[in-house]
Amino acid sequence: MHRFGILGTGRIGGMHAGLVAAQQDAAVTWCFDIDPSRADATAARVGGRATTKVDEVLQADDVDAVLIASPTNTHVELILRSAEAGKPILCEKPIDVDLAKVEMCREKLEGFNVPLQLGFNRRYDLSHRAVQQAVASGEIGPLELLVITSRDPGPPPPREILEACGGLFRDTTIHDSDMARFILCGDEPVEVFAMAENRVDPVFAELGDVDTAMITMRSKSGALVHINNSRRTSYGYDQRVEAFGAEGMVRSNNCRPSETVRYSSTATASREPLLYFFIERYKAAYEAEIRDFIDCLKAGKAPNVTFEDGRRALILSEAARRSESHAQPRTSNGYFVHLGIIQLDGGSNAVYLFSEGL
Amino acid sequence: MHRFGILGTGRIGGMHAGLVAAQQDAAVTWCFDIDPSRADATAARVGGRATTKVDEVLQADDVDAVLIASPTNTHVELILRSAEAGKPILCEKPIDVDLAKVEMCREKLEGFNVPLQLGFNRRYDLSHRAVQQAVASGEIGPLELLVITSRDPGPPPPREILEACGGLFRDTTIHDSDMARFILCGDEPVEVFAMAENRVDPVFAELGDVDTAMITMRSKSGALVHINNSRRTSYGYDQRVEAFGAEGMVRSNNCRPSETVRYSSTATASREPLLYFFIERYKAAYEAEIRDFIDCLKAGKAPNVTFEDGRRALILSEAARRSESHAQPRTSNGYFVHLGIIQLDGGSNAVYLFSEGL
Amino acid sequence: MHRFGILGTGRIGGMHAGLVAAQQDAAVTWCFDIDPSRADATAARVGGRATTKVDEVLQADDVDAVLIASPTNTHVELILRSAEAGKPILCEKPIDVDLAKVEMCREKLEGFNVPLQLGFNRRYDLSHRAVQQAVASGEIGPLELLVITSRDPGPPPPREILEACGGLFRDTTIHDSDMARFILCGDEPVEVFAMAENRVDPVFAELGDVDTAMITMRSKSGALVHINNSRRTSYGYDQRVEAFGAEGMVRSNNCRPSETVRYSSTATASREPLLYFFIERYKAAYEAEIRDFIDCLKAGKAPNVTFEDGRRALILSEAARRSESHAQPRTSNGYFVHLGIIQLDGGSNAVYLFSEGL
Amino acid sequence: MHRFGILGTGRIGGMHAGLVAAQQDAAVTWCFDIDPSRADATAARVGGRATTKVDEVLQADDVDAVLIASPTNTHVELILRSAEAGKPILCEKPIDVDLAKVEMCREKLEGFNVPLQLGFNRRYDLSHRAVQQAVASGEIGPLELLVITSRDPGPPPPREILEACGGLFRDTTIHDSDMARFILCGDEPVEVFAMAENRVDPVFAELGDVDTAMITMRSKSGALVHINNSRRTSYGYDQRVEAFGAEGMVRSNNCRPSETVRYSSTATASREPLLYFFIERYKAAYEAEIRDFIDCLKAGKAPNVTFEDGRRALILSEAARRSESHAQPRTSNGYFVHLGIIQLDGGSNAVYLFSEGL
User: Fold this and answer.
1) What is the average pLDDT score of chain C?
2) Residue B282 C-alpha, separation from nearest chain A C-alpha, in angstroms
């Protein structure tokens, strides 16, 4: 029986806690939250003891692993403290929105040998994974074009969440950057270009953020990647991946609650709105993610989604952000001057060419 | 917390036990099976005590309800004993394959006031249910045509299961007969006609059974119903429902494990084989069925799928069987003479016109 | 250049005339209609001379073939006169609605050796044809289940057309009976059963006709066939064919004017209403039909759709009509007694068992 | 009757000639080609006189309009000579691959008042047009994201055609640039960015061309546009358009020869390869294009697709070409330095910011 301490029992932490409890070979033994009522409620629902002191969890003998689902700006601290305590870690994405903090965390982690899995849940979606497998197996030949559509349903999240989330590229696109890396199968992106807009809600512009974007990447081998994002659709959570090569194309299409199809005098073959949002759309993926983490621990294998995956996805998102931020209004005629193509070395270091003075 | 005794812990009983255990407000407290190793294994997995004596379960104070998933020929006995013990019952379909036994059971049950839900799990499938709701709400106008496609994947079940199952009409078609009644929303079938064949495997003919069939029904109001069945497909479990009326059509299409779509030089838009069989295809429906049973118990409401639903579906399947069985080889030229249209009164009594001497 | 005389230049005759004129190697040289203005209008549009005297066409040297698209009750006379005149014939379906007239025509035609193609246009539809080819080639294994959905869009045709059309089975179902025979590839139907209703418009009941039907057939080899018909849909012309065998399933789905797909807050993946009716839906099939007729004439080969095909489809429709007509209200309780299973010999003679006195 | 002179009777000219001849109110009276056998063959097939002297056509009294389908590098000359002769012009795209020649042609045309329609056939495709109409009508709200997938089937065209075609951006992408402008409904692109690769065939690199590309554009109002191109697919001609706004999404999907769908043990819902190439895929669009040209002439209205449309699409393709061409191998580490974002004024003048010295 693998005993989990849940660090952070808000919406997503509560979901994870329920999924852990549903495993035959796992249990929740501790629920930590700075809000005692939240910790209590989760513990009452899934089992385990509630606490507002993280050290109670980290020092407990009946904790075999921790699941970090606290606010993003606490991830690095909790990762390091959990590593010090020797507890295997499943941490929600992102590691942090600040790349410097991530680099610092990376260095400090080198001293520990603690399994750490990063929560890129979409890698566990059966449809997206089938696309990755089609590329990995050579089914479609070497990857040439990769098109990722990733649009959140509206309305926008509350302002306080938006303020802390790091902006569209580091909050939302980071999933797509990771998906791109996942499907590229080691053929790392070396160029990033982004165009973005404010179309959805004034709150995004007020926060200096964007809400609508297109990103282009080039991989080392010359695969081209397109990502498009929006913070709002009218028709549900739009999540698609399309991989194209000389031998064929594989696509991961959208999911709906059922297979119902309608025919009327105005429309035929109509289906429902898409599943509303990530907890519904990726429920099976979240469960498979926890399952895989437990299976790796049991087998003594390293986790399949790593800290380095989290760091590189952030580097790509940061590149997109920098690329986009070089699109400045041009006083003479009101159009944009946009020069921010960002070059990466495809390896472990980010080289933002533009910031080097081009 | 609703405490369940599982009566019968074979494949389907074991599945039910797991689904009960996964409910937040339910638990398995007893696992009964005549095979002690099966009872033990299930109890070890989902909790509760194992026993080979059914009375231990029926007399236990910590049993709020029983779930009957034993072999079909024991259902009637276990229903009656559970009713005597005052335990609410969720019983797998069918009640029995012998209509006389069902009528007897019905009479005896009149003396008890115990909630009994019959396990027509497909009523809880979101896609099929949406078809029913479209009819019930008037979305497509009064129902005129109902087409049910229901084909099991191969290979055929083991011979011993086939011997006990009551034949295609009472084992498989009974689900479709119930689906027809569910979607007809009280507009009961009054005519049944069936044609059937042996195309799949010699075992069916050896057992005097058929493996491929088409059934036609007419409802009181004049809705026409078509069901087609096969014991074997090459492409997975084919489960479709199509309802047609003056205002439109609603269809429930097949389910697959993912939304992956493939394009190659030989085929485009290709999808995977369908989900293989009922435990995979109707997993969510089985869970919703148990959920609904618990919710009805909690609310003190009568179950939504009743003994009478089980009895009437059997009457329809029996009518199809009798209709089909009147197709006899005609010595003079080898063709069939088939005169078995069966008339029902649409109410509580089956009137098999043919058997009355036409 | 193949020179055609068009016999009958109403709506469908006018369409055929245009399709003939569009062929590179064919021309319309004569347009006959009893209504001179109609003949004139067609001739002005597609070329050729107009006439109200059919013999002018039949005796003309510049007529290599005739296309009969006059009212159904004139088909037999025009077939025989064209045959006497030695002109190859492409005749719209049906030959006639009266089987006795068809049998008479068949006997008289034996004296002539004139190519005659019957206008079962749906055999030339690429999607339906692909189903037939999948059966013929063995792709899906021996045919076991065939499901044909064939529903006309509303509103119903004018009363005078309905009065002459021979009723649902001989006007509409005859296409589906032919489709069944086409896909059965020589494995002739030997049993026919029909249930029907009046649900669409009172005019059908007033004419002693039905408007909604389900037909079941059994072939010699034991393939089961289901056809469902309605005289009215709200969503366009619904034309589907599904063939099932041990190795797989092939379906011919509906056609729409475009590949446009819509997503909104209420529906996703929505498509347009289906193509409205036969001239739009089967435009390419009508053209391929004429093309095939010309190609056969050029090659000196017998036409691919024969008088016998027309006769046998009528026999099946007649069987359905007789089967259905034995469903009579039963005075005692208002339900139906329906005993009309019709047996055929699968060969050239119709044996209506019921009418023989069962 | 509108009498056409066809200028250039190669593959596409021959197709156009056939479509003109098929119109009820149009005829081909002259077929010009420098290859007399080609001119003769087309004239024999569709009517009219053959000639190798273009002036015979331009001076003929029985020519009401010309259709220019000669090699691209002769378009400007033939446009100007036809305009001088006062003949209305339907000219295949592109005007020319050399923007300077196009600007020259534009100036000279100002002296004439001759109707000129440019052959952007895809604007007449019913599915793509429905997307444009959904944007124009406000159905999806203001356009925010536009994704155009446009991939030719392989193998690549012959080397001599590739040498003259102007490269991927001016030969292929120009259609997509026009589609973007069509759907943007006057909201002109003001920024263009392109990444491209050589992945398909060595011939493209040998010619200094690319074969795989992603283009991003921003419109004046802030709509973002993505185009992806490949010179080769394994599964047919891939032509899709997706428009997204606050109120919904409309997509134009791919076309196939039929609606046949297959189910087997390895794949379900499989469809055929896509229609192979432009003559098959856009047959109806080519016909509608000619139809619209004739209708505009008849009504005395200016054509709906103009010389200016051809010029602006070329400016966008040229911008993409220049953007891409600034991606140069970087000697130090082999990666790319790519700085070519191109700015346009969204009006009648192209301002290539990069070439101005950034």
Assistant:
1) 90
2) 12
Give the pLDDT confidence score for residue B112 in this predicted structure: 93
Considering CB atoms only, which of B233, B254, B270 is closest to D267? B270
Angular region, B72: left φ>0, alpha ψ -120 to 50, beta rest: alpha
Is it the case that residue D24 has pLDDT exceeding 90? no
Cα–Cα dist C105/C109, whole Å: 6
Query: D258 — contact with chain C (CB < 8 Å)?
Result: yes
What is the arithmetic mean of pLDDT over D15-25?
92
Rounded Cα distance between D44 and D35, Å, is 15
Q: State pLDDT tens for residues B134-162.
A: 999 999 999 999 999 999 998 888 999 89
**Nearest residue of C to residue B147, measured between CA atoms:** C228
Give me B62's structure tokens: 């910590």
C-beta separation of C290 from C274 below 8 A? no
pLDDT for residue B329 is more than 80: no
Tell me the percentage of chain D whose pLDDT exceeds 90.
77
Chain centroid offset of residue B39 CA: 24
Q: What mean pLDDT comes out for the span C190-209?
A: 91
**Average pLDDT, integer, range D253-274:** 95
Q: How many CA atoms lie within 13 A of C301 on its CB side?
A: 9
Cβ contacts (< 8 Å) between A263 and chain B: which residues?
248-251
Chain D residues with CB under 8 Å of A205 CB are none
Nearest-angstrom CA–CA distance, C219 and B120: 34
Half-sphere exposure of A300 (CA within 13 A, CB side): 0
Q: A134 CB near a chain B CB, below 8 Å?
A: yes
Q: Flag whether residue C44 sits within 8 Å of chain D, measured between CB atoms.
A: no
The set of chains that have 3 or more CB pairs under 8 A with D is: A, B, C
Q: What is the pLDDT of residue D188?
A: 87
pTM: 0.93
Nearest CA in chain C to D18: C24
Q: Which two tokens stand for residue D88?
A: 């209305």
Residue D351 has pLDDT above 90, yes or no: no
Nearest Cα of chain C lies from the Cα of B248 at a distance, in angstroms, of 6
Measure the N-to-C terminal CA separation of chain D; round to a whole number of Å. 56
Report the residue of chain A nearest D219, measured CA to CA: A335
Work out the average pLDDT over C233-238. 96
Both structure tokens of D179: 């589609």
Cα D332 to the center of its chain, rounded Å: 40
Cβ atoms of residues B170 and B317 within 8 Å: yes
Confidence of residue D220 (pLDDT cuts 50, 70, 90): confident
Residues of C in contact with B326 (CB under 8 A): none
Could you give the CA distance from residue B25 to residue B1 in angstroms, rounded to a whole number? 5
Q: Which of A191, A224, A335 sits opposite D212 (nearest CB)?
A: A224
DSSP characters over B199-226? -S-HHHHHTT--SEEEEEEEETT--EEE
Say whether residue D269 is in contact with chain B using an 8 A CB cutoff: yes
Whether C150 contacts chain B with CB within 8 A? no
Residues of D in contact with C254 (CB under 8 A): 259
Helix (H) or strand (E) holding B175: helix B174-184
Looking at the predicted structure, is the pLDDT value of residue B345 above 70?
no
Nearest Cα of chain D lies from the Cα of A218 at a distance, in angstroms, of 8
Residue of A nearest to D233 (CA): A246
Q: Are strands B238-245 and B248-252 parallel, antiparallel or unpaired?
A: antiparallel
Mutate which: A198, A214, A215, vs D, most D CBs within 10 A: A214
